[in-house]
Amino acid sequence: MKSEIKISIRNLVEFVMRRGSIDNRYVSSIKALEGIRGHQKVQGSYGDNYMAEVSLSHIFTYEDVDIKVEGRVDGILIEDEKVTIDEIKTTTRDLLIIDEDFNPLHWAQGKCYGYIYCIENKIDNIYVQITYYNVDTGYTRILKNQYSVDELERFFFSLLDEYKYWYDEKINWQDKRNKSISNLQFPFKEYRKGQRELAVRVYKSIINSKKCFARAPTGIGKTVSTLFPTIKAMGEGHTSKIFYLTAKTITREVAEDTINFMRKRGLMISSVTLTAKEKVCKMDEMNCNPEYCSYANGYFDRLNGALKKIIKEYNNFDRKIIDEISEKYKLCPFELSLELTSIADIIVGDYNYVFDPRVYLKRFFEEKENDYTLLIDEGHNLVDRARSMYSSQLYEEQFIEVKKSLKKGTRLFNSIKEIIDYLKDKGSVLKVIDENYIIENEELKEFHKLLEEFIILCDYYLSKSSEVNKELLQLYFDIHNFIVISQYYDEHYVTLSKYDFKGINIILYCVDPSKVIQERMKKCKSSIIFSATLMPINYFKDIYGYKEGDYSINLQSPFNIDNRIIMIGDNVDTTYKKRRETSSQIVDYIMNFTTSKEGNYIVFFPSYEYMKIIYEKVISEHKEINIFMQKSDMTEEEKEKFLDLFNEENKKTYIGFCVLGGHFSEGIDLVGDKLIGVIIVGVGMPQICIEREIIKNYFDKESKGFYYSYIYPGIIKVLQAAGRCIRTEEDRGAILLLDTRYSKNQYRSLLPEEWLSCIKVRGGNEVKKCCKEFWNKWC
């Protein structure tokens, strides 16, 4: 049975014949609209013998495959029995400098349309013309050639030969890959407790096109338990591409290690890891243009030739390999990684490559449906990340700063002044009502109109200016992003006008991201959402769109409960008003907990301010203690040095003070004696702010407001922080929770089932006694 593939003429031409450089300098968005008008003007200038926007297609039986090539030609002109294919291209270039060699891709498209028209209509020759329309002047220039069907056939099949080469490479690779997958056994000698159950649910979810919600505690081996069955499903033809999505770099590295581990056991699979442009750029500045960057200059000239060699040499495209390839072939590492996503079986990257409306991989998600699988690791993080992705804000300060750089009296100056005046009027309203914010359930139409007028004028200014005004360009992009987000505005949004140190902010705030998350998931065959803290699971089912038939699993920790002790001190009030009053109690708990056994400890606090209060009290009263504190603006190097302090060889007790929800409370592995105890001060509740109150009020319609806005996000942070202690079956450790609210059922009921045997303690002496008894068991 022959296979059938489909490709558009444009994609065929652009893939095979791509040439030139990466150039991400300013390109007018208005010109795109003018381009559409230009097409319409040219098409409307002809009579009844001109057919506009004509669809053409033909199926070519090519060796062992049927290739359907299709497209829509701008126009077909028939006069005196002569047929002319008309390709219309809009430009801002001087028409006098445009000749036949201006852009070979334009002729290639026209010739492909011409060939299909010839064989569909059984004619021997045809004219192809390229009509260049200058959007600034309204003038046109027509270049025209006649071709025989034989000429067009040779040209067309030269493209198809090249395309078929890549298709054959893909099929040959898939055959090898699927054979290796068929022979692949689970990469460990035996399944851990809960591991097989998780793998089975994941596999069934994929083959049945369902979602899977999995709470998989530390130790289950969730990475291999989700990747292995998904790869097995791929080998059986149930999914063509796997997206392994994470929120943190360290989790991406675990995914890479797991894939490589299976490769060592015979798996042949290709994978690419996507890394943010600013992290991989080889230049001093991210100026992606051929005049500045040698990796951008001639990028497309070198790309296809390099890819032919690359796919023969590599199948693991992690950050290090991409950096090496980039240097070897002089290719932009970031753009190369994006190109490799089309080849790779597995794409490992941040959530934003699938969910962010501004940067998602459009090449995969423009179609209505596909058979991709999303593996969403640490799935508890996606809610707030999506809320951020689909929100946007503009600051009054931005407009004021840009205004200083503009010439008074110009239309652009007057436009930005109108926007500033509008924002000042908003500020005046806030002063009258004596509030620092206004919440509205609709878009600010006047504000949007002003922004759109400014964008039009800004477009014209930037297209004519020889010098780059960086502040203006950044504001232009910020407004453009704001307008993009406004297209999603509906009942899940509010408009928040807020006053702070930057003046008035206008925020399009995505209160409930469930709709946008679910819409993207619908474009994939299956979504597997998993985390050690995907709880309460009904909360995530609500947000991510659980439907009848979807799978869910709530696994218990595979670790021996005798290896840890969990204590709750529910007699200390850590609420904001009581923090200084109860600081002595907190210090007493900390000192007795950490002096029960020499070792490395972390104390987690709900805020930097609270952490600093306790830190200063501890060091003033206990100068002999080695305490180091997380800073709010640590570099990657400083974070690594901080973690290096948790050394198994430490001869004294070391205590790290960290913030709940911060870098060190999630995704780090301090195994063995690198960390033997964790204290969590508070219930992790986010600080009260207007955004959290908006979420609360929104979900209060379903009597879930306080839970969705404060309690659930807080408890998830607590569980994540507690999970830093005991990372392997051999680890032993102590966990202490401090807050009066742990005595209330609405909090206690959210703790994992395996924590129900926790010990209630009242004061430091009881903590020390319990800890000593625990540690003495292992001496």
From TrEMBL:
A single GO BP: DNA repair
Record's keyword terms, sorted: 4Fe-4S, ATP-binding, DNA damage, DNA repair, DNA-binding, Helicase, Hydrolase, Iron, Iron-sulfur, Isomerase, Metal-binding, Nucleotide-binding
Source domain of life: Bacteria
InterPro entries: ATP-dep_Helicase_C, DinG/Rad3-like, Helic_SF1/SF2_ATP-bd_DinG/Rad3, Helicase-like_DEXD_c2, P-loop_NTPase, RAD3-like_helicase_DEAD, XPD_DNA_FeS
UniProt cross-references to Gene3D superfamilies, sorted A to Z: 1.10.275.40, Bacterial XPD DNA helicase, FeS cluster domain, P-loop containing nucleotide triphosphate hydrolases
Gene Ontology molecular function, alphabetical: 4 iron, 4 sulfur cluster binding; ATP binding; DNA binding; DNA helicase activity; hydrolase activity, acting on acid anhydrides, in phosphorus-containing anhydrides; metal ion binding
SMART domains xref list: DEXDc2, HELICc2
Keyword Membrane: no
Residues annotated as domain Helicase ATP-binding: 181-427
One matching Pfam family: DEAD_2
PANTHER family, per database record: DNA REPAIR DEAD HELICASE RAD3/XP-D SUBFAMILY MEMBER, REGULATOR OF TELOMERE ELONGATION HELICASE 1
Similarity comment: Belongs to the helicase family. DinG subfamily.
UniProt name for this protein: Helicase ATP-binding domain-containing protein
